[in-house]
Amino acid sequence: MRKIILVLMVIGLFGFAVANIADAASTANITVTVTCRVLGVTVSPTTWNIGLVETNSINLSTAFTVTNTGNAQQDFQLNAANSVGWTIGATPGSEVFRMSAIFKDVAPVESNFIANDDLTTSAVTATAAIFCIDADAAGVKGYDVVAAATRNLWLRFQAPTSTTATAEQSITVTITAIAG
Question: DSSP characters for 128-142?
Fold first, then answer.
């Protein structure tokens, strides 16, 4: 009887071990990491006070520092709003002003501004040929701007050829960061 009990115990232990081996599982983990794209832009200074100007005169700004405050490469879009008394246009006229912009490392001259640099009320994205001097290196232009990088932006304002607006006009230039 003892032998039978001993044999049954051995068979039971063996069966229990086989059952545990059959139930055992191997595991593997996948670690998922993700960062959401955050777009951001700041500009400094935030105002340009041109002051009193003659009709049809041309004024160039000093540099505005535009910074990619996002966490990834991005492009900049530019547009301008009409003022209360004037509208923006490609050619100055009666109650029509022209505003242009160039991303450049050093101050441009007036002749550097071409039609591709004109602002409109619709947002336009900076490219290798828009809002820049074509011959400049990509690293000074307003596209493919890496996180934390800065660009110098210069504005050109051409006053209307004639106006009846005697009050100070306020024009908003908007810089928008988009995925680039």
Answer: SSSSS-TTS-GGGSS
Q: Which of 45, 39, 40, 73 is nearest to 173 (CA)?
A: 45
49 contacts: CB under 8 Å, gap ≥ 6: none
- Euclidean distance between CA atoms 10 and 22, whole angstroms: 18
Rounded Cα distance between 180 and 145, Å, is: 8
Cβ atoms of 128 and 118 closer than 8 Å: no
Alpha-carbon distance of 62 to 66, in angstroms, equals 13
Summarize pLDDT for 16-49 with one digit per residue, the tens: 555 555 677 899 999 999 999 999 999 999 999 9
Is 101 buried (19+), middle (13-18) or exposed (0-12) by CB count in 10 A? buried
What single string gives the DSSP state of each residue in 35-53? ------EEEES------S-
Is the pTM here over 0.90, yes or no? no
Distance CA 146, CA 21 (A): 55
Instruction: Judge contact between 123 and 78, C-beta under 8 A.
Output: yes
